[in-house]
Amino acid sequence: MSLAADVAQVSVGDSKTQRQNRALNKQLTDAQAELERLRGLVGLVERIEQSRLEPPKWARSSHRKIGKKGIVTLQLSDTHFDEVVRPEQVEYINAYDRHIAELRLRRWVEKAIVLARDYVAGVELEGVFVLATGDIFSGDIHEELKETNADTLYGSVVHWIEQLSAAIHLLADEFGRVHIGAVVGNHGRDTKKPRYKLRAQSNIEWLLWKMIAREFAQDTRVTFQIGDGMDLTVRIYDTNYLITHGDEFKGGSGIQGARAPLALGQHRTTVRQMATDHPLDYMVVGHFHQYQPPSQGLVMGGSLKGYDEFAYGKRFRPEPAQQAFWITTPERGPTIAAPIAVQDRKSEGW
Q: How far is CA 6 from CA 3, 10, 18, in A?
């Protein structure tokens, strides 16, 4: 082999080594950036004060006169904050963006107050429970969401902490006492695939509720019960509500839709709870963007976002943006129930 050939071979080898070094350096830089991001999140979580995790005493069974007491029970489900739904892409059935979401969140609180004060007579209301069943954010688990959301996930958290805190303050001012029970959905996760280990702690919604709980740490009117797992049991008087997002209930086709997977999921959950001596009376789910008042042990809370491009493309039946409202009483559990309609085309400007 000639000297020129040897030099050329060494040059090619050097170029390959340089490319490998550049690739390794990029991987190292990306890994260091991810490590710093995780350190920041861990530090933020560590600074969050321990919130009160058990239902307050005022929600327990009372020996006072039966039939005259009740607690307003609200479900906050599938708000999908900062997702954008373009009305022209769904035949103007719905529209959604940050501004519309703010209007609907406020309308949810205001209509809950009107329903409780003006439509429920003869019941002394002892406070309000908010059962948050997940998908507060749409997140960026799909490329199309990442490309079209109104903000990054972390930017959304900063914005919506203030909005949700304002809603809680308004409820506390009106009803005197507020208890928040919250689980995470499937859209706020920081992994590509759903997970079971550290499911809550790897979801931005868990951090959101922890931060809001910290904001209310000095407000004795407001308490929190934030789930560290997939499900959470919230007890109101003698009624056990198991709240879960519902994304684990898969299957169903044709006219039966979500009913088949929900029936199977409800049965399996009931068996599990009975076997562990943690019975449930009602399972409260989100995820399906459908409303069902308390009936046969099940509540579905609808969706604040409403109809979207996915539902339109899958030919799902349109359902307006709405949330579940009911009154829990000591002797009957859930009684008076109604949907809170939050969609208003005229005021939302579409």
A: 5, 6, 18
